[in-house]
Design a protein that fits this description.
The protein is of the alpha/beta class and 236 residues long. It is 49% helix and 16% strand. The protein has 2 domains: 187 residues, 2-enoyl-CoA Hydratase, Chain A, domain 1 (Alpha-Beta Complex); 31 residues. The chain contains 11 helices and 9 strands. Helix 9 runs antiparallel to helix 10. The protein starts with a strand and ends with a helix.
């Protein structure tokens, strides 16, 4: 089950993974609900969190078992998870993952797709799939080395071990440790919506450097024109 709540005072949509009895493990329906919640967001910031003592345990074991060894269905399930992660990555909204408790497998992969990852002191992280002959296939093999470096990604994935918040911070897996991660979403939401969306596009741009710099300069020019009065007010 996925709960969606919008803050009337701030442009924040809260998306809660709400199956605490199974550590918020995700089924096909759950993945599709996350996709819809992100797609429908008109708020500048989306805050993704888990209910109860976990962020997300990843794919629901019953859902994986229900694939019955069918390779076509397995690929379809992986493609769905990848699509949801891309939706998080590509939405104009800034998506902040508030990670409290375990983020495992597919849960970690969804967090990797978010723009900002904030963990509580109790948060833990891991890709345990190798211990039962699988691996995270929701884009984790692409994003994990990009975020923590190839060597660290290989070591985490190949051992299947979990790490605590301090280790995750050192690796760059999360950017901050906060008792209440939502405060970071609130900080971000206090800024101009259009500037947030432009910054996300530029910082997420995977094109060659020359093309990125050209678009960066044009985006900066557009924002200067749009916020001329704000800049003048600062200088007064």
């Amino acid at each position: 089950m996925i709960d969606v709540d919008s803050d009337a005072e701030r442009p924040i949509r809260t998306v809660t993974l709400d199956r605490p009895e199974v550590r918020n493990a995700l089924t096909v329906d759950g993945l599709e609900a996350i996709e819809a919640a992100i797609d429908d967001a008109e708020e500048a910031v989306v805050y993704l969190r888990g209910a109860g003592p976990a962020f997300c345990a990843g794919a629901d074991f019953e859902a994986v078992s229900g694939l019955n060894g069918d390779s076509e269905r397995a690929e379809s399930f992986a493609r769905l998870g990848q699509r949801v992660a891309r939706t998080i990555e590509e939405t104009p909204s800034i998506v902040v993952a508030g990670i409290d408790g375990p983020a495992r497998g597919g849960g970690l992969e969804l967090a990797l797709a978010c723009d900002v990852r904030v963990g509580t002191p109790e948060s833990t992280y891991g890709e345990p799939g190798v211990s039962f002959g699988l691996f995270g296939a929701w884009g984790g093999t692409v994003r994990l080395p990009r975020i923590v470096g190839e060597g660290n990604a290989l070591e985490l994935a190949l051992t299947g071990r979990s790490i605590d918040a301090e280790a995750a911070l050192r690796l760059g897996l999360i950017s901050r440790i906060e008792p209440e991660p939502r405060t970071v979403a609130t900080e971000i939401a206090a800024n101009a919506d259009d500037a947030l969306a432009v910054l996300k596009r530029r910082l997420r741009d995977g094109d060659d450097r020359t093309a990125q710099e050209a678009r960066e300069a044009q985006a900066f020019a557009d924002l200067v024109a749009a916020h001329a009065d704000d800049v003048d007010a600062i200088l007064e």
